[in-house]
Amino acid sequence: MSEVAGRSKVLWSIVGWLVVFVFFFPVLWMWLEGFKTEPQAASTPPTILFVPTLAEFQEVLSGDFPPFFINSAIASIGSTLLVLVLGLPAAYALAIRPVKRSRDVLFFFISTRFLPFAASLVPLYLLARDLQLLDNILALVLIYTTINLPLGVWLLRSFLLEIPHDLFEAARVDGASFHHEILRIVVPLIAPGLAATSLICLIFSWNEFFYAVNLTSSVAATAPLFLVSFISGRGLFYAKLAAAATLASLPVLLAGWIAQRQLIRGLTMGAVK
Amino acid sequence: MANTTATTAPARKAKPGTGAVAISGRRRRYNVLTRRDKILLALMVGIPLALDIILIWGPTVASIFFSFTNWDGIGGIEAKNIVGLKNYQFMFTGYTLFWPAFTHNVIWLLWLTFVATPLGMLFAVLLDRDIRGSRIYQSVFYLPVVLSLVVIGFIWELQYFPTDGFINNALGLVKSGHIIDWLGDSRINLYAILGAASWRHIGYIMILYLAGLKSVDPSLREAARVDGATEVQTFFNVVFPVMAPINVVIVVITAIESLRAFDIAFIINQGKNGLELLSILITNNSISEASLVGFGSAIAVVLLLISLVPIVTFLTRVMRTSQ
Lengths: 273, 323
Hints:
The complex is a heterodimer of chains A (273) and B (323). Chain A has 273 residues and is mostly helical. Chain A has helices at residues 2-34, 38-41, 55-62, 65-95, 102-114, 118-130, 137-160, 165-173, 178-189, 191-207, 210-215, 223-233, 238-258, 260-267. Chain A has a domain at 65-229: MetI-like fold, CATH 1.10.3720. Chain A contains 14 helices and no strands. Chain A is globular, with a radius of gyration of 23 Å. Chain B is mainly α. Chain B folds into two domains: 18-66, no CATH class; 86-322, MetI-like fold. Chain B has helices at residues 2-14, 25-32, 35-66, 86-93, 98-127, 134-146, 149-160, 166-170, 173-176, 189-214, 218-226, 231-242, 244-260, 263-269, 278-286, 293-322. In chain B, helix 7 packs across helix 14, helix 11 (218-226) runs antiparallel to helix 12 (231-242) and helix 15 (278-286) packs across helix 16 (293-322). Mean pLDDT of chain B is 84; it is low at 1-31. At the A-B interface, helix 1, helix 4, helix 5, helix 6 and helix 7 of A face helix 1, helix 2, helix 3, helix 6 and helix 7 of B.
C-alpha cells in the first residue's frame, strides 16, 4: 500500500517538474539568447552550448536604450508616488471614517479599473494633443496615476481595515487632527501595506504599453517601446533584443519577487489575501 | 494646517457626549465630524474621484458621443458632423476588418475562459496538495504574470520564428523542410499568440486560485474525507462552492483581460493578417493619418458594450456579498 502511494508520489513529482520546466523554458531561452553573440543567437539549429558574453548587454547600455529606461522609471515612480499621496487619504476616508455614499464611491473606483482602455483612448488622445502633452512623460505619469488609483485606494483600504479601531478612537480622544492621525498613526501602521501597494503600482505602470504606444513616440517613449521599435525597425537582432528585454524586466522581477505575496491581493483589489 | 488642528480638535473632543450614545460605532463616528472635517474628507475622496472621472469615464462617455459623428478630430464639431448611425452601419456591413476582429476577440475570450482558466485552476489544485518544491513551482508560474506583455511577445517570437525559432527546430521541421509559419500564417497565428497569452493567463489564474484555496477552512475538507468523499468529489462538492466569490473574480478577470487584448498582437505584426482585434482597429482608425475619430469611436462603443457585461456582473456580485 505504502509502496504504491510512494510510487505515485514520485510519478506526480516527475510530471510536476516537467510541467514547470516547459513553463519556465521560454523565459530561460530569452535570458540565454542575451548572453550569446548575434550569430549564435540567430543560428539554425539553435546554439545550446556557448561561452556566455556580456557584449550585447554592454552595447544595449551604452547605446540608445538608457533614455527609454529612464522614461519608464519617471513614469512609474512618479505615478506610484502620486497614487500613494492621493490614494492614502481617500482610502483613509473610505475605511476609517465612512461618509455617505462611500460604497458607491468604492464601486465607482472599481468600475474604472475594469473598463477597456481602448474605449477611452481616442478622446484622451485628443485631450493630450490639445494640451500639448503628446509625447510628454507628464501625460503618462498622469494617466498611470489615474489607472492605478482605484487599485491603490482599494488595496490601502483593505490594509487600513485591519488596524484595530481602538487605535483611531484613542488618537481622536487625545485630540489628534486628521493629518496628525494619518501621519503619526496610519502611516507607520500600514507601512507594509504602503510598500506592497507601491510595488504593485510600479509593476503595472512599468509594464504598461497601450497608453505608452499611443500617447508617446520618441521623447517620452518608455522601455517597452524600445523593444517594439527594435523588432519592427531595424531587422532582428535577437541577442541585443534579448539583452534589452532582460534588462527591461529586471525592475519588475525584483519588485515582483519582493511583493510576491501581496501581488495576489493587488490583482484582486484586496479581495483575496 | 496648524490652525485647523487648533480649531477642530477641541470641537471634536467636546461632541461625543452630545451625540446619541446608543447608535452603532460607524454611525457615531459620522455624527462626530464637524463641517470642516466633512469638507476635508470630501476632498480626500473627491480628488482621486475627479481624476478618474476626467481621464477615464469622461473620455469613455465622449467616445459614445463621437461615435455618432464623422469628426476627424480637427476643429470643432458642427451640426453637419453629426451623422447618426452611419458609422455603425458601415462598421457592420462595409468594413471588412470588423467581423474578423470581433470574432478574434470572441475566440480569445472563449479560449481563455474554457482552456487557460481551467488549466490554471487545475494547477492550483494540484499545487495545493503540498507537493515538494511547491515554492519553486509558484515562482515559475508567477514569472509571466510580472513580465510585461511586450517582453512576453518577444519571448514567444523567439520560440515561434520559422527557421531560427526554437519550436520548429525542436520538432525537426526545419531539417525536414516542413516549416510551420506560426506567426505569419493567418490560419494559425491567432492560436499561436493565444498560446503565449495562455502561458501568462495560466500563471495568473494559478496564483489567484491557489491563494483562494489556501483560505478555505481545512476542517471542511477534513469533514468531507471523514464522510468518505474522494478528492475529486471533495473539490467539486465542497471546495468549489465555498470559493464562489473567487470564482467570480476569476471569470471577470478573464473576460476583462480578453477584451483588453492588444499588446501581443501589436508586437507580432501590428495586428494585421489574422491578428486583428477591436482595440487595434480603434487605434488604427483614430490615432493615425486617417484620423477617423468618429468611426474609431463607434468600434470603441462596441468594445465598451461587450465589456459592460462582465463589469456589471462583477459589481452586482461583489455588492451583494459585501452587504
